[in-house]
Structures are given as structure tokens and as C-alpha cells.
Amino acid sequence: MSDIYIIGEIGSNCFKYKSLERNLQLAFEQIDAAKQCGADAVKFQMFTHKELFGVVRESKYELPKEWVPKLHDHCKKRKIDFLCSAFSLQGFHHLNPYVNYHKVASPEACSTPILNSVLCMANPVIVSNGCLTYDEQIELVKSNLWGADDVLMECVSEYPASTYSYDLGHIVKLASKYRILWGLSDHTLSLVAAKQARQLGATYFEKHVDLVSTSAAKTPDSPVSADYYDFKRYCSVLKSYRPSIDYYDAKREAKKKYGRQKNGYRPING
User: Fold this and answer.
1) By three-state DSSP, how is residue 39 classified?
2) Is residue 255, in this structure, part of any structural domain at all?
């Protein structure tokens, strides 16, 4: 059984039609396809225009709150986890009974009241670090609010991102020192960054997906989303991919064997 957790970020890709009823059906179809691809969870986004921009305005991409229990129930039937990002404390409280993990996006991770309140909830929390400095990440994982099941996701603000956009060194250092769970919020259009992260010890992966082919309008997430076949391969490759070594143990062993001493290099035996 795989020890990694893959999230298919559906986001706005369930809002392609003018009819809310048709869009809800599309959301169900996206969930079904994600399960077929091998994902462990799907994720939606629940926001209002005011929460994002401070201005009251209707948006066709706002997920109706009454959808939440329906999406949750459909996921439960398909045996796949239902996740949903919120963008206000009220939103997180609304989602709390329905999600297995709370997902905190990068901008909301900078809001101390929101982040601390969500960390105090019963469910584990997945936090994207794209807007946090390295010192802020250290402070977060050292906090007595950070739990053993909470997850820090390496994230960048580029959509799409290149493999070179990700600097995995700092989160590997952080994970090695504080023994935290970590993963990759993957905005690239290839498998390279994900395989690198997996090799270095990542166990959580998040990928934008649009898994249902339609002739309907494109969405804001369409250009950065993996289709059905690419996402199925993504899940298959990562779930069968095993690091050839335990990264942390190998690093300690190498330091012990080859590390500098006060009197110079340690001799190599054998």
C-alpha cells in the first residue's frame, strides 16, 4: 500500500456551465474521475468575492455553501476524501464537520488569527508555505499548536510554474530537523518536481486537475490543470516510486563517515 497522499485540486473546474445544477453534476463527475485516476482526495475552494478582494460582487466561480454536504456525501460513497479550502474563519468553521483535513492556502497562512484558529480544530491541517518566510515556517512547526499529523506544503505563486521555481532544499532541511510531514503543491506541467520531492521524502502532493472533457467554457484553472490521462499517470508513477535510500538516514550516515573533524577529514575505510 502506498504511503503517499495525492490531492486532485478541482477548484474552478466544476464551473463550466451557466446552470448550477449542471455544474454540481460536473463536480460529481470530476470526483469520480479523480478516484479512477488513483487520487486519495479531491479539493474544492469555497470563497466569496468579498473575502478575496474586499468588494461584494457575484462570481460564477463561488462554490455554494449548500454544495458542501452534497460533495462530502458523494466523496464518501466513492471512498475518496473531500477537502476544501476556505478564505475566512467563518468558512473554515462551516467546512469543519465535512473535511478530513483543513487546507490553508498561502495567503491565509499569513493571517495569524485564521491559522491559529484552524490549528486548534480537531482535524489535521495542510498549510501551503508560499507566502511564509523560512523563519515564519520554523516558528510555525515549533509552535505547540503544530501537530504530528499536520503537513507543510512547498508552494510557489507561479501558475504554471517551472521545475526550477521550487527550491526544495529549505523544506527538506526543515523536515529533517523537526521531523514534520511535508509535501509539494505542484503547479508544474510535468512529473519532474514531484519525483524530486518524492526522492527527498515528500509524502503529500497536490495537483490542479480537469478530468472531464467537455465542450464547455474554460475556467481560470484550466491552463494549469492535468487532464485525465496525465493525472492518472501522475498518481501511478508517484505511488509506485520508491526512494532508493532513506534520505535522512543516508545524510546522517554520510556525515558520520565522511564529515570533517577538527583534525581534518575522517579517513575512509573500505
Assistant:
1) coil
2) no
Q: Are 104 and 130 in contact (CB under 8 A)?
A: no
What is the rounded distance in angstroms from the CA atom of residue 151 to the CA atom of residue 155? Answer: 12
- 57 in a structural domain: yes
Backbone angles phi, psi at 259, to 5 degrees: -65, 160
Give the per-residue pLDDT at 248.
Answer: 54
Cα 127 to Cα 111: distance, rounded to the nearest angstrom: 12
Tell me, what CATH number does 47's domain have? Answer: 3.20.20.70
- Measured in residues, the chain has a length of 270
What span, in angstroms and rounded, lies between the C-alpha atoms of 43 and 106?
15
Read off the pLDDT of residues 208-221 as tens digits, 9 standing for 90 and up.
999 998 877 789 89
Pairing of strands 204-208, 181-186: parallel
Q: pLDDT band for position 266 (50/70/90)? A: very low
Tell me the per-residue pLDDT of 162-191, one tens digit each, with 9 for 90 and over.
Answer: 988 998 999 999 999 999 999 999 999 999
The answer to whether the CB of 89 falls within 8 A of the CB of 114 is: yes
